[in-house]
Amino acid sequence: MSYWDYEPDRPPQVSVSKAESQAFGISIVRANYSSWCEIDSELEAAMQENDLVILRSRDVVPFEELAGFKVIQAGCLVYWVSEVDPDFEVGDPDYQLVMNLTGNALTNFSDVLRDSFSDYKNHYDFNPTLNGPATSEAYLNWAMSRVDSDALTGLLTFQEAPIGVISAVQRDDVVEVEIAGIASSAQGQGHYKYLIGQLWSMVNQPNSSQLVISTQIENQNVQSAWNKLGLKPQFEIYTTHIMRKK
Fold first, then answer.
1. CATH placement of domain 81-234
2. Start-end ranges of CATH 3.40.630.30 in the chain?
3. In a designed cystine with 151, which of 53, 60, 108, 146 is the match (CB 3.0 to 4.6 A)?
């Protein structure tokens, strides 16, 4: 799922999620709708043929019950967007963003990732069928997979100590931050602005003029940090789990 999946007038996208299906041992399909209309034939087929459909839309899905299915409202993501060409702070030499994630750097990235997201709640946590150790592992495994993808993924160090992780994807004039976290021992000390700033200094070219980032609506601390960086909330994405009853 990405910011671009919810552009206005983008057609619905329904596809099997192989990674999630493997992680949870059930067949899972992702369905992304820029706006909600109704259960169309493609979505209905996915519901009938799979154990779980993870439906996301800019609109609240207007049903709480469906015959033969369990419907779970699974939270809300808030997307925040920067102004064009934001002025993020990057000028402190004590901070470095390590992009070559091999050896000790890769180990440190994994350790900081697990620590900084240990209490993060995502849509899986709303579903009692999925809730448990596999929930955290599925999210962390996805986050670690970004290291070997086309994403820009880095480890932030402060005075050579690893304190932060970040991953982002770039398309046209938008950079979407997928992961951004500070180690628990380093939180509340002003490091977050440098995490964002170091990334921005690497991608801020003439064709990269805006930053996008999202989180669960309950995550008020990080949204406060985004507000201080000058970002503004743009839209919300609602998640619904539709599970076929056995």
1. 3.40.630.30
2. 81-234
3. 146
